[in-house]
Amino acid sequence: RKFAKVQERQRLAGNVFGSQPDLLVTMESTVSSSWHNLHSSYGSATLRTWQQLGTDVAASDLVLPVFVSDRDDDIEPIGMLPGIYRYGVNQLGRFLDPLIELGLRSVLVFGVDSDTTKKDAEGTNALNPNGAAPRAIKYLRTRYQQLTVIADVCMCPYTSHGHCGFIDRDGSILNQQSCEYIAEIAAFYAQCGAQVVAPSDMMDGRIQTIKDKLISVGLGSKVAVMSYSAKFASSLYGPFRDAAHSAPAKGDRSCYQLPPGSRKLAMRASQRDYEQGADIIMVKPASFYLDIISAISATSLVPVAAYQVSGEYCMIYHAAEAGVFTLRAGVMESLVAMKRAGAGILITYYTPQILSWLSIQDARP
């Protein structure tokens, strides 16, 4: 009977993520009251803008990833990401004030533990109230009233083994335990002031667990969930892992991130996360996965975000340095392609440059 209700709801909704029989959700666990919580999807001006997809690249589309060091006064260059830095909390204002003036609307916060001795197998430092991420979230919410603060939620920056969840003795992921702890981290960041939590761990069922946890702490209708739903086991993450000190100590993440060639798994993951209450669906990386962005956005009832990852940033940067094209031409064409494919939210390290280019364009008579 419950399965019949799932099928009927999918039929009435137009089978949100496609009409193919093999994409029907059959798991009873996807039926949740979280699916009906709409307020969290438009709780701020930025979130309301993201619900209204346009075609031109605008400042409101952009999300700037920010690496926050636990050393408060740091401005530390990241070797594999030219022009990108880790900032201590005391330096965030210096970095972001000019960008706010140019129209920056949203940031994605990544906390970085510079001291590896703080890491352990359980990732306990993720819940440290004096950690880089929670302090940065509080600082940003206090200093910038109109800025939408998104908190990346994962265990890998805080675990000694570098994986995104708890691991068993044989190295396999303990999925349910990981979901529960990731939900604790998400609720903690939400209580610190994050308007959006973005779980990047790729555990099965973590959106449901997070939504339930947010409801239990009274934030279910106030905090949105941006799910890294179609996150592929890509070769393009190397510079990021250097920046966040989050590379796996042993093995890789191919058993929980998606295989690059699998379109159907991406569709299933996105549908599942939507059914469990995700307010925004993300595709990561972006440039190599425009077909996935297009397929999801064609039928999605929630906004789709595209993450132009560190490897994509470096490819464009070094091609521009070599004279293949101008930086502006390469960056803007890549973003137009993502918008054309259906992404309404663009997460990119080029946000500062794009804001500058857009301001010059807007200033023309």
From TrEMBL:
GO terms for cellular component: cytosol. GO terms for biological process: protoporphyrinogen IX biosynthetic process. 5-aminolevulinate 1 binds at residues 241, 253. The keyword Lyase applies. GO terms for molecular function: porphobilinogen synthase activity; zinc ion binding. Pathway: Porphyrin-containing compound metabolism; protoporphyrin-IX biosynthesis; coproporphyrinogen-III from 5-aminolevulinate: step 1/4. 5-aminolevulinate 2 binds at residues 310, 349. Pfam families: ALAD (PF00490). It comes from the Eukaryota. Keywords: Heme biosynthesis, Lyase, Porphyrin biosynthesis. Its EC number is 4.2.1.24. It is an enzyme of class 4 (lyase). Belongs to the ALAD family. Homooctamer. Catalyzes an early step in the biosynthesis of tetrapyrroles. Binds two molecules of 5-aminolevulinate per subunit, each at a distinct site, and catalyzes their condensation to form porphobilinogen. This is Delta-aminolevulinic acid dehydratase. It comes from Spongospora subterranea.
